[in-house]
Amino acid sequence: MIAPSTNNSAPAVQVEHLTVSYGPSPALLDISFQLEPGQLVGVIGPNGSGKSTLIKSILGIMKPDLGEVRLFGVPSEKARRSVAYVPQRGAVDWDFPVTVEQVVMMGRYGQIPWWAWGPSHEDRRHVDDALQTVRMEKFRHRQIGQLSGGQQQRVFMARALAQGADILLLDEPFAGVDAATERALLDVLDSTKRAGRTLIVVHHDLATAAEYFDSLLLIKQRLFAFGPPQQVLQPELLSEVYEGSLKAFEHLRNVANGGRS
């Protein structure tokens, strides 16, 4: 595992009064929270709740109306090398003629000087380390479209790791994968967290959110709750945010009560 590159006492992610709108309607409204390094955080909320807008704001590609996002104390638009993004599988052209190794090397492009002939020995070492971390080194010469869904997710996780970023943003990495692959991805996320990196994961499955994450952000334009899963996964709160009946979230009562019936 490549060691984190940032040594800074500032929070890994600091969001202050973030407000972002598309036209007259706010996508995010006055959101504030901060994350210390080495956390695995899930972002939950209904469709259209602003989860993607939050990710774009942390990436520094979305200009807020009000407020700011800082990464290790630096405005996000000036700290893009500190953050890496793992997209949804549906956003990738899997027919593109590129190998696993080439995809992971893309994570190093920002580190290669324009005058260099190509990747250095150091760049190749980062790629090798990342492939080993996600257990995809045996597939390095395979075209990405020939991989299973879970393998494809692991390749893009390796690309993010090779980049050397201290903050990783993942957009629904567990969507469309089987249980064994989901567990393998969780192992990668856990080892990445233990290495000191901060991971923010958009997640849609409330039933597994308590098991997977240290903390949860529950958003629907504004921040409804942030904290440990047992604090956030309250049926009454979820019913308000998801506009569903309490019965739909009855199975979460044990989680909210610490496993007590």
From TrEMBL:
Gene3D superfamilies: P-loop containing nucleotide triphosphate hydrolases. Keywords: ATP-binding, Nucleotide-binding, Transport. The keyword Calcium does not apply. Pfam families: ABC_tran (PF00005). Residues 13-246 form the ABC transporter domain. PANTHER family: IRON TRANSPORT SYSTEM ATP-BINDING PROTEIN HI_0361-RELATED, METAL TRANSPORT SYSTEM ATP-BINDING PROTEIN TM_0124-RELATED. Transmembrane segments: none annotated. InterPro entries: AAA+_ATPase (IPR003593), ABC_transporter-like_ATP-bd (IPR003439), ABC_transporter-like_CS (IPR017871), Metal_Ion_Import_ABC (IPR050153), P-loop_NTPase (IPR027417). PROSITE patterns: ABC_TRANSPORTER_1, ABC_TRANSPORTER_2. SMART domains: AAA. This is Manganese ABC transporter ATP-binding protein. One of its GO terms (molecular function) is ATP binding. Belongs to the ABC transporter superfamily.
